[in-house]
Amino acid sequence: xxxxxxxxxxxGGASGIGRAAALDAARQGADIAITDVMEEKHVxxxxxxxxxxxxxxxxxxxxxxxxxxxxxxxDSIRETLGGLDIFVSNAxxxxxxxxxDMPPATLEKTVSVNLLGAYFMVQAAAxxxxxxxxGGAIIAVSSISALVGGEFQTHYTPTKAGVLxxxxxxxxxxxxxxxxxxxxxxxxxxxxxxxNDLADERKxxxxxxxxPLGRLGEPExxxxxxxxxxxxxxxxxxxxxxxxxxGCFVNLQ
Length: 253
Ligand code: RM4
Hints:
The protein has a 7-stranded parallel sheet with strand order 3-2-1-4-5-6-7, with helices on both faces. 44% of the residues lie in helices and 15% in strands. The chain has helices at residues 16-27, 40-51, 67-81, 104-132, 157-175, 195-198, 201-210, 220-230, and strands spanning 7-11, 31-36, 57-61, 86-89, 136-141, 179-186, 241-244. With 253 residues, the chain is α/β, with parallel strands linked by helices. The protein is built from 8 helices and 7 strands. The chain has one domain (7-251): 3-Layer(aba) Sandwich (Rossmann fold), CATH 3.40.50. Helix 1 links the parallel strand 1 and strand 2 (31-36).
């Protein structure tokens, strides 16, 4: 049990990487708080699965792009679960679109959710952790896209570079409070975010060919790295980033 009796909160926890990480954190002994835009009735089975591990589960529906969601989420964690130890900023969108005719609204929404949403949430979580005075761990789900471009991701890749940079700066700002800040950089993980994109078989095949481990990622592939960074096993790790991409990034020559 790597996270015994910790409180673990995650944005975008209703599906994909967030859901897999929330379930694994519960298995590792943590109580779980989730926020997502999904209607609560669709999240019930996940909440019951967390409770089946003997852990408490809290759900708050909200959009991370709105600054007040962060305060609502963190307040309800404090009131219902009594505190916060681990915060994972995971919510993100990637509406794939060409560059030259990118609609301003698509650009603004992507930046608002992925970057501003992460900022508001991490700031609210850190304030509670600092007030508690017992340290904590913050993890942001960045992406291989923080390091490489994407033709149809010109709005998205800057947000993922931004989220990586946010963890580097908050690691400095929060180190004196015993709060560690790290980023995971998933490669291509099969979730709803890229279902349409990967329906293009040529693109999917090309990606798989570049991946030394020979397959695309599954959401569960991120759970271990996130739990590790959240746990005391990583007690001297801060300001770091961990690529979880099956080796895709380094495979150029
Ligand atoms: C990742 C990477 C993947 C894409 C997701 C949405 O950073 O670019 O290929 O599927 O983002």
